[in-house]
Specification:
It is built from 15 helices and 9 strands. The chain has 2 domains: about 180 residues, Rossmann fold; about 200 residues, Up-down Bundle (Dehydroquinate synthase-like, alpha domain), CATH 1.20.1090.10. It is of the alpha/beta class and about 375 residues long.
């Protein structure tokens, strides 16, 4: 096990990492525990947290109304619970959805306002309730970054907001052992695209590039083995580490085109898992990225195919390299599987350029409606 300080987060990484927090948790008196419907209990994390809270006589209430791709209304309801109970600690147990919702709600509880106010920029995070994040997937990276992703109920705009870092985070690979095969693939590919986009965005730097290459190397080496051996704790730990450093990579760099389009897709269709959405549109997006920044694209993708060249002429090969890797690990889905058709393309283009245009500001190339149309059409 090791500890890491990044941003304002102190991360505990390793098996039984929660045991390091016994004394820390005992300092709090009123706690709100934030979860989804089942993963917190199925993973065993909820039982471990409740045991610590009970052993130290800490009052707590569980808020378990967070859905995948959480809604602003859920975040605001959670903020009301945190404020009304006078909570001095929020514990979020889950993947990106519970942790992101808890980040935003812990800010609203003390800084006031509604989610739309922070989207519009009329309010900024000033104060927040301390947050302990217990991560259950090897994909999100949110346990070490400052971002929260929330979808507005009325317009279905899925926004990524710079909100706060968790004060304390737990990455225990034991809690990822209950991920099924699909979630194992989706979350690992989420970390893969975090790495790729951070290494190819305009704000990339040496630190980000090195983290991104290491993360993709770990994923390339271990994900194919893990899908055939889901209970392998050593492989889970390696992928959890890759996800964590990929989270730091996007926090120090950025995402761009792939995440920008995916936010639109899973905002319009919340049943689309985030990592799945990235994998659906990722390969064709990589074609356009490699054409413009082939040296940075190849630097990451050579972990999948060492023969890939840092030249624009290898853009199609870069796309096929990622497609073949995804097929190897068992990903073989299409956008049409989630109800999308060619009739949705104009609406998707409208959201990308008129509602969520800031999400592709760090793209290494100017995104056009023709490119978005091609990426979506190819992915159907």
């Amino acid at each position: 096990m090791f500890t890491l300080r990044y941003g304002s987060t102190k991360l505990y990484f390793g098996v039984n990492a929660l045991s390091e927090l016994e004394e820390c948790i005992s300092c709090y008196r009123e706690v709100v525990v934030v979860t989804g419907k089942s993963s917190a209990r199925v993973s065993g994390a909820m039982g471990d947290v409740e045991k610590v809270l009970r052993n130290h006589g800490v009052n707590y209430v569980v808020y378990d109304n967070i859905s995948p791709n959480p809604w602003a209304s859920q975040v605001e309801e959670l903020a009301e619970v945190i404020w009304s109970r006078g909570a001095d600690l929020v514990v979020a147990i889950g993947g990106g959805s519970p942790i992101d919702a808890a980040k935003m709600a812990s800010v609203i509880a003390l800084s006031g306002g509604r989610v739309k106010d922070y989207v519009a920029g009329s309010r900024v995070p000033k104060r927040s309730v301390p947050l302990l994040a217990i991560n259950l997937t090897h994909g999100t990276g949110t346990e070490v970054d400052r971002y929260a992703v929330v979808t507005l109920d009325d317009t279905r705009e899925k926004h990524g907001l710079s909100v706060k870092y968790p004060e304390i985070s737990i990455d225990d690979p034991r809690y990822t052992l209950t991920l099924d095969e699909k979630q194992t693939i989706y979350t690992a590919l989420d970390a893969f695209y975090h790495s790729y986009e951070s290494a190819t965005c305009k704000s990339r730097n040496l630190f980000v590039e090195s983290l991104a290459r290491e993360a993709t190397s770990i994923i390339a080496s271990n994900l194919p083995r893990l899908v055939s051996d889901l209970k392998n704790l050593d492989l889970r730990e390696k992928l959890l580490y890759a996800s964590m450093i990929a989270g730091i990579a996007i926090d120090s760099g950025s995402t761009h085109v792939i995440h920008a389009i995916e936010h639109v897709l899973s905002g319009l269709q919340p049943k689309l898992p985030h990592g799945c959405g990235l994998a659906l549109i990722g390969p064709r997006s990589i074609y356009y990225t490699h054409k413009v920044v082939p040296e940075y694209s190849a630097y990451v993708l050579r972990t999948l195919d060492p023969t890939l060249k840092p030249i624009a002429e290898d853009a199609e090969k870069a796309q096929k390299t990622v497609e073949e890797f995804q097929h190897e690990v068992g990903f073989d889905e299409r956008l049409s599987d989630y109800g999308f058709t060619v009739k949705d393309i104009d609406l998707i283009i409208d959201y990308v350029f008129n509602k969520l245009n800031y999400l592709h500001e760090d793209s290494p190339f100017p995104l056009t409606s023709e490119i978005v149309k091609d990426i979506v059409t190819y992915s159907l």
